[in-house]
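Blinded run. Sample ID left blank on purpose so nobody reads anything into the name before looking at the predicted structure. Input follows.
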Amino acid sequence: MTKDDDPEAYIEAFERTAIQTGLDRGQWGHQLGALVIDKAQAMYRALSREEAQDYEAVKAVILYRLEIAPESYRQAFQARKPRESRRPCGLLQALRDSLQKWLPAGKLNREGVLDQILLEQFLLDLEEDTQSDKKYQRGMS
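Blinded prediction complete.
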């Protein structure tokens, strides 16, 4: 991985390659750790040997260190898109990608998704001073 690579695209390509080549899943964490650089590599090296064997843990700490989290996907989903990105097909795909990363299908059931959307709308509808208090509390939990 280079500094110019999109970390998510890189990890997705890594996963596809690992599957296609039949790499034992128990080796994925070590292989990914050997390929990342800078901050991501520092996070990988800070893991214990046991944690480094858990691919999902390796992936999670790398994405966390690179500040790629559900909150950033929520912001991307709700942000006003640049004019050049607002062509119908491209806009729909960008929204779909951000939504799937913000609310991953395997991690939330229908009720969880509805609760998340309700919470977001609730926070948007609160008055500004109350809104900042609730966001602070949400960050604490």
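Unblinding after everyone has recorded impressions. The chain has two domains: 7-65, 70-140.
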